Amino acid sequence: MNFFRGVIGGQQAGAQPSGVETIQKLCDRVASSTLLEDRRDAVRALKSLSKKYRLEVGTQAMDHLIRILQTDSSDSEILGYALDTLYNIICSDEEEEQDESEDAVPVKSKSAADDAQRRQEDDIGAQFTERFIQEPENVTLLLTLLEEFDFHVRWPGVKMLTALLKSQCAQVQGIILVSPMGVSRLMDLLADSREVIRNDGLLLLQQLTKGNAAIQKIVAFENAFERLLDIITEEGTSDGGIVVEDCLLLLLNLLKNNSSNQNFFKEGSYIQRMKPWFEVGDDNSGWSAQKVTNLHLMLQLVRVMVSPVNPAGATASCQKAMFQCGLLQQLCTILMATGVPADILTETINTVSEVIRGSQVNQDYFASVNAPSNPPRPAIVVLLMSMVNERQPFVLRCAVLYCFQCFLYKNEKGQGEIVATLLPSTIDANSISAGQLLCGGLFSADSLSNWCAAVALGHALQENLTQKEQLLRVQLATSLGKPPVSLLQQCTNILSQGDKINRRGSKVQTRVGLLMLLCTWMSNCPIAVTHFLHNQENVPFLTAQISENLGEDERLVQGLCALLLGICIYYNDNSLENYTKEKLKQLIEKRIGKENFVEKLGFITKHELYSRAAQKPQPAFSTPEHMLFDHEFTKLVKELEGVITKAVHKSSEEDKKEEEVKKTLEQHDSIVTQYKELIREQDTQLNELKEQVSSLTSQKDQMQSTITQQLSQIQQHKDQYNILKLKLGKDSGQDGAQVNGQLEEVTLLREEVEELRRKHSVLNSQLLEKEALISSLRAEGVQTSEGTAASAGNTELLKEVETLRAQVQSQTAEISQLQRERQELQSRAETTAAVSGDNVDAAKITELENRLSTQSAEIHRLQEEVRSLTESRALMEKDLATASSTATILQTEKSKLQQEVTESKKEQDDLLMLLADQDQKILTLKQKLKDLGETIEDEDDLDARDQSDEDEEEEEDDDDDEDEDEEDA
Asked: What are the distances in angstroms from CA 393 to CA 144, 337, 445?
């Protein structure tokens, strides 16, 4: 221990050992000490020497330190010292300071010696990193140590792994990717409650996810989006510190150029959680540098989701989600807010541009946004005012141009609205329109405004023939006292009279912008070509420009002039005799030369700025002078260069042949169109027929099932009929007698009921007379003097009432007797129906029983009140009707049975006739066989044989009957 104290901290007597010797002794002690405390002290000493003697410690102690990580994993203190030492070896202090300061303050220029030393330090770190990762188990060991919760182990392990990734990113990524649960262990760092470990874990994941799509997907599916968004919210979103910036950088790594993660981000509804990031208050005066950085990264994150380089379907779905959740509306609020820093405003304009690009719903919303001014102005007009204002920053003007291009991209409605502001019928003198701003910028003194306005107006005509024709109607007032000229004429005047009109035509940027506008305008628009050729000065100007030998800067103008002249040839409808296709080609051959013309045309695509503009839609230029090409125009050049070259080289005969071919193709197209229409009609008819077939098939299936059920029912009825026929064959005589007896009983019952009805009517009339007498006696009010006579009369009346009651009781007894007889008759009818196989409905019998019970109740009520006789009479009439219907049913059943018997007799007669015919045929055949010499048995022999067989069967039947009788006994 005294040795270590002397090495590290103090002066001792005698000569001090050198650093290399000390490191050697410490390494020997680490390798040979058996006590954990001695190894721990030796590793602590190596840590203190590792910064000053980085090369020596790394060379001699790395293997010993790795062995410590493997063997002493139970002691967190020695593990921490070892990890710190390895970190110091791989990453120097200068590198750490550089990483901390590279985003905050620019690093001052260093001398050549400092640069050399810096490169030397980087080389040392790379060498030690390669030595460490030569064994992939070392990286796996680090990942295992990260599971240790102790701060002195976990934090150095995070820094160590981050340093390895910075030095050898691809190799370390490959090792982690194949390590079991390697990425999952690193994702656990984000859930650590200690902020320093969580924050360094963010830096580690940033290095881990750089340029590796597989690791990006794994991190995303390890719930990284949820955790990162939670951290951003906890830290205060845009007002947060450096931690928010680290989270946003990690999100950018996960989403940029990774369509799978973008789709996962959208489907997880994480776009909706981005809206609160852009809620900027009214007080925008105090914007810290960190807030500007955070908001800038947030805008970049939105742009990553809707970038034009993404698949079209994915971009469209993200644009839709941003509109539905209100994110686009929030961005437009920042766009129109005051006090927003210029770089944030510029990035917001670019972000809004890509959110609305190609989305009709978003473009319509953006067209409805108004700036908070008095009076309110559309946001498009306010932005165009900034674009044509030369005092605005260059990057802001480029952003506005990009926004206008994205607003018109695949937006025919928006294109029509912009062009409509230039037409005479829609111009409002009291307000500034987008068309007026574009015309003002097109003819202003600022060449950048000329170029931006020309490109913007060209996008209003992109792939829209209707608006190209509408723009030909635009008239401009050049000066007082002179007639107005068309917009097309004014553009060509500026090109051809450059020095006469304020020398604007001599500026290359202005002329390039105007030529791009004219080429876009006249491509695929023969009417615009005719208007352009109608001016006698335009073609000589173009030929003169192309044929001259000018400097390097003018070659681009010559190429564009050649393109414009080629458009006049290719889209010429030969309506002007002086400038037909053939005459223009002859003019090129005489004045310019075909080869020279094609060479000048090729100058466009060979220009350096052309290839730059063709890479992406957003105009990205370092200086205003580099703004020469538009992205959409590069597509047009690529499309037209080949066809114009072919058109110039073709002869008149080839043109005629081509025209004939075109006519033939047109005829062919018309025929094809007719056939297409016929096919469409046939398709509709076929679809209708298919629907009918499907409906008929379903109906057929239903009918088939119904028929099957009916067939089964018919078969059941046939079986029942056969059984009934057999019964009828045996019991026909008995059934007829029973039916006749039943009919006689029904007739007697009907007569008794009639007699009962007559008695009831007589009784009812007597009762009515007595009631009338009683009511009259009560109404007269007999005097007291006549009391004796009244008493005698009342006594007689009471006697008559008693007599009437006695008659009612006797009648009730007769009715009861009749009811009993009727029940007996019903039971006998049921027995008769059961014997004869009659299908009497059980429901009707039940109904009859219910009615009989009702009659019983009515009879009891008749005993209590005399007036209920009328109701009981009605019920009896109903019963009689029911009995009549029952008799009718029986008669109907009898007629059916008789008809069935008749039919069966007919069938038997038919069978007998068939048998007779068959016997005759058999006799004929027998005679033929006898004639042929065959021996045929006589009928007598056959009858005898049959008779013997019958006798045997009868004997067997008798035996069976005797057996059955014995069993019954």
From this structure: 53, 18, 17
